[in-house]
Specification:
alpha/beta, Rossmann fold, 2 domains, 4-stranded parallel sheet, 14 helices, disordered C terminus, Coproporphyrin III ferrochelatase, Ferrochelatase_C, EC 4.99.1.9, cytoplasm, Ferrochelatase_N
């Protein structure tokens, strides 16, 4: 087998995602899965689910994951990479534990995992690792072999993730009226998280204090700079930009990352900006947070203000992203075999780590998390 297409020691890839409802009857049970353990009343979940009901109770995320699954399989086949690709979700079918059970029953014992979250944070990294630990413990309790799972590194700055977003911003600028285009502002958006969670995102060396945002904010800012620089090089125009946030939830008294996209649109309109491109760099695909919070809520706010806005595309199943996943997989496989492959990354930050160190994106209450330096097996105690 050619070295550049050798996936050993891995015998399968798992696409691990958040999941979403696929009909009205799914919405409240899905939200119960998402909020399990928080004691939120069912009636409150029905209220929260109104965003989904506006779209027939269907989140776009599962359909987009199917498209990405097809794109990965197509890319692997075209490049002679003989590796099966499976798909499992955290919060809806196909559930992670069910998928891992199938993989084990199919004979797979060394599994690489791609999470559909590109950046460092508790909810975007460690929580997926906790879900993996729970699933492995469930398999062990059933008497099944427990595979080794390795999560692929963060890919926020991989060219195959960034370049489709650059093209998306360029296409959005081209959609604006000529008279507004050169003065357009770019609002790079991502999911808001509590400032306490942002401050402890990434490795302990990345952690900050007083809401500065740790690795989560630093990684987004780095990607935003790369995209803005590429747009300037392509168009000759230096568009002003800012990293802003969306999709805040939780108790009002808990500080979350700001400014909110709608507040930002009001501020930019008041400053006389002629148009805004909303670029959702924090999302791999069109989650409900993109379809509702940007395409519905923020777009309505812009219309109310009389401010032209265009929302640029997420990466989704772009063939360049599928190729990036292949690159990440083969990079990790080569590293596991003792080689030192080139690690592609754009911007000022280095390529991400392979193994999350102790203290990386910690949970409020420590729990076992697989695929990290603190993992000691499916029944290990949580680190103290």
């Amino acid at each position: 087998m050619p070295e550049q297409c050798d996936p050993r020691p891995y015998d399968a890839l798992l696409l691990l995602s958040f999941g979403g409802p696929e009909g009205p009857d799914d919405v409240v049970p899905f939200l119960e899965n998402v909020t399990r353990g928080r004691g939120i009343p069912r009636e409150r979940l029905k209220e929260v689910g109104q965003h989904y009901f506006l779209f027939g109770g269907v989140s776009p995320i599962n359909a987009q994951n199917r498209e990405l699954l097809d794109a990965l399989r197509k890319d692997f086949a075209e490049h002679g990479l003989d590796l099966p690709v499976y798909w499992g979700n955290r919060n809806w079918a196909p559930y992670l534990t069910d998928t891992l059970r199938t993989m084990v029953q199919d004979g797979h014992r060394r599994i690489a995992v791609l999470a559909t979250s590109a950046y460092a944070s508790y909810s975007g990294c460690r929580q997926y690792r906790e879900n993996l630990a729970d699933a492995l413990a469930a398999l062990q309790a059933e008497g099944l072999p427990v595979p080794q799972v390795d999560k692929l590194r963060h890919y926020f700055n991989h060219p195959g993730f960034v370049r489709p977003m650059i093209d998306g911003v360029l296409a959005s600028l081209a959609e604006l009226p000529q008279e507004a285009r050169d003065g357009a502002h770019i609002a790079f958006t991502t999911h808001s998280i509590p400032t306490a969670a942002a401050d402890t995102s990434g490795t302990p060396a990345d952690h900050t204090q007083d809401g500065e945002g740790g690795a989560y904010v630093a990684q987004h800012l780095d990607v935003a700079r790369v995209i803005a620089d590429a747009v300037r090089a392509e168009t000759g125009v230096d568009h002003p930009w800012r990293l802003v946030y969306q999709s805040r939830s939780g108790a009002p008294h808990i500080p979350w990352l700001e400014p909110d996209i709608c507040d930002h649109l009001e501020e930019r309109h008041a400053a006389g900006v002629p148009a805004v491109v909303m670029a959702p760099i924090g999302f791999v695909s069109d989650h409900m947070e993109v379809k509702y919070d940007l395409d519905t809520e923020a777009t309505a706010k812009a219309a109310e203000l009389g401010l032209p806005v265009v929302r640029s595309a997420t990466v989704g199943a772009d063939p360049r992203f599928a190729a990036a996943v292949r690159d990440l997989l083969l990079e990790r496989a080569a590293t596991e075999r003792g080689l030192a492959p080139e690690r592609c990354a754009l911007g000022a930050l280095a390529a991400g780590h392979d193994l999350c160190p102790v203290g990386c994106c910690p949970a409020r209450a420590p729990r076992p998390a697989a695929a990290g330096a603190d993992w000691r097996g499916p029944v290990a105690e949580a680190p103290v």
